[in-house]
Amino acid sequence: MATHPNQTDVKYFIINGISDEPKLQFTIFLLVLLIYLITLCANLTILLACRDPILHTPMYFFLGNLSIVDICSSTVTLHKILINFITGNNIASFFACMAQMYSFGSFQGIELWLLTFMSYDRYVAICKPLHYHMVMNIRTCAIMVSVCWVLGFMQILPPVVIVFNFSCYLSNEVDHFFCDIVPLVKISCDDKSFLEMLLFVEALFPTMFTQSVLTFIPYVFIIVAIVKIRSGFGRRKAFYTCSSHLMVVVLLYSTLFSQYLTPNVSSTLHVTKMYALFNAAAVPMLNPLIYSLKNKDVKKVLKKGLRKLEVN
Predict the structure, then answer these.
(1) Which of 105, 112, 271, 309 is deepest in the core (most CB within 10 A)?
(2) At 173, phi and psi to the nearest 5?
(3) Where are the beta strands (DSSP E) in the chain?
(4) What predicted TM-score, i.e. pTM, was given to this entire model?
């Protein structure tokens, strides 16, 4: 235990990892490695599939960006677990820790904004089908995706800057598997009341709350439009069009609300750690699987690609 009361000069952090039980380390390593490889393969497969002309549509343009974000976010967090096991080195420099915290927060924000615009895309496709190609043109989609990346990298800056300027730590041990804001707030002995309030208010209003409202409101209109469809086949087809996106949205937001929307972030670290593990490992892996398993177009493109490989 590297505890230094009123420590003011922290040059590195010790990342404790998922568990400090020696017998579990190899099992955890294999499980994380398997999840990471599945995440890479599944998301790279989606990216390759999106190159096919059949999938040159706004939805798959957003989906391709989502796959890039999932690859980046899982790499930023899970690589530390794998490196720690292989090298035995669980130390991260102060600047590396800050960079990891900023990167993960940014990719998380980008993903939420992408899901928000994908929700609008589904609304236009189902509620305004005759105007779809005019509204969701290439220029509009490019602007939307650019906004996602810019907002994602900007919205995490205020809390990261505050943590970066912390001058006092009770310990340099981070009880987590990567440098996240919550565990770093816990070990700081600076006044954390403003940051805790900022995280809570920012999550509720400017960012997560706004994104969730903008994501789910279109589904109110989508559900109304689906109910008005007279034929059962038409209703099933319309629901099938947006079911994959809705599943991903519900999965991600249920995890994030459980992970971050707690007034006192320092009192729920162990619970937060488990939610963070699911968010960092399982969500990026499940996203492409949900889309590919439920999407006929993606499966058609993948089958065509496999046939080409067999011929060659």
Answers:
(1) 112
(2) -90, 125
(3) 3-7, 12-15, 91-93, 169-171, 173-174
(4) 0.86
